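Lab meeting notes turned into a lecture example. A postdoc, R.K., suggested we walk through two folding results consecutively so the class can see how the record format repeats. The first protein's sequence and structure tokens come next.
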Amino acid sequence: MSEPLLETRDLLVDIGNTTVVSGLQLRVANGERLAILGRNGSGKSTLLATLAGLRRASGGTILLAGEDLARMPARRAALQRAWLGQSQNDPFASTVLETVLTGRHPHLRRWDWESRRDADLARSALRAVGLSSLEQRQIGTLSGGERQRLAIATVLTQAPALYLLDEPLSHLDLNHQMAVLELFAGATRERAAAVLMVLHDPALAHRFCDRALLLFGDGYSEIGPVDGVLTGAILSELYGHALRQIDDDGRRFFVPQ
């Protein structure tokens, strides 16, 4: 068996007095898509930030491409993984193109300028999210949905082996939600990238992911293929509300009862 791109061994993640996961054993391979689901406050974002190396785990080990993430230099980690947070902070004025080019910074030496290839990659990402006509716009003039698509273009420009996406569909209308999920599905097919993403819609998780990790909010978690863990019975327990499962031509939907 090949070495996993991301691996956790007996991972313990706490926030305050709450345990998010305890003893998590996770192996994510190249080309795999994993959804993280759970109620509000169950620790999905905390876990994802920990997997990105942005906060320290309470116990256990995280390996990124076989290397202990806690000891990995930040630049080397950024070459391997990209992290998309829930919200975007823009302390400085910049254009859309300048912002998306920051995705190339891990690939540059300290005093390097972006190359023509970097600019081409950035413009390709902007086209992919439908923002190519806005590259000279100031980011402060963008709508919430446009700013989210710019953040997605930036991590696409980074072109890592692993994408860690915290609610990548927030602020997006339906057509852009589907387009973004297709973009990351394409990255797994074409570059064998891996994707971990926090999602709120279990039907989209079932459609676009191979496996799902469910956080129950008390340290207990469950992981498995989407057909096995994304069921009406399990999700009713996860969300604390009865859901009816509907299967239609290989796709699965969940309706509140």
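The second example is placed directly after the first for contrast:
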Amino acid sequence: MAVPMKLAAVLLCACALFATNGLAAEGDIWKHPLKDSGSTAIDSTFSPMTAHAVVRGDFKQTKTIAKLNREFVSFGKFVIANDKGILWDTEKPFASRLAISETRMVQENANGSRSEMNAKDNVVFAQIAKAIQSIFSGSTSKLQAGFHVFFDRRGNNWTVGLIPKEASVKKAIQSIELSGGTWLERIKLVDGSGSPLLYELLNPKPGSGLTAEEKALIEK
């Protein structure tokens, strides 16, 4: 989806996730641990996503609070820019922007106010970033450095399952699942309380370079 990225931190619930696209039904991915012999296959699967410097599209985010049995849905646009970072431009229900680069996270509200923090201070975004970085760079070794990796491919569709290796990270994140075909299409994270966060990446396509405003948010 993009050329190799050096993201150290980024951003990103269906009952039968991926089943309708011919992918493994939810839960099946954990039956397919990645073996050493599978590294070549997973790298070749990612290779089509490394050809573009910038990818743009729409996203739908669904956050489920398990204890409350409630869902919160938001919509917007995303920009993924090679080794610079990712921008989540939320449009509904409330406008905001979240830009995540290798070292920082910048939040911009509808009124133009901004706040900035070290990307490493948010475990959830950091781990999503690590996973996305590995997908975009086509590097299985980066995934294996921080996660136990599971992989299943059926035809042109694939699913990657990730379980954090570090105990401190596992307290915040139980698992991450990524799936797609030609493009990365879904990112599902289950947090330490068992609540899922689902990103659906819609209409992804190669884009032009970053605008001046986007550069100001994403670049270091």
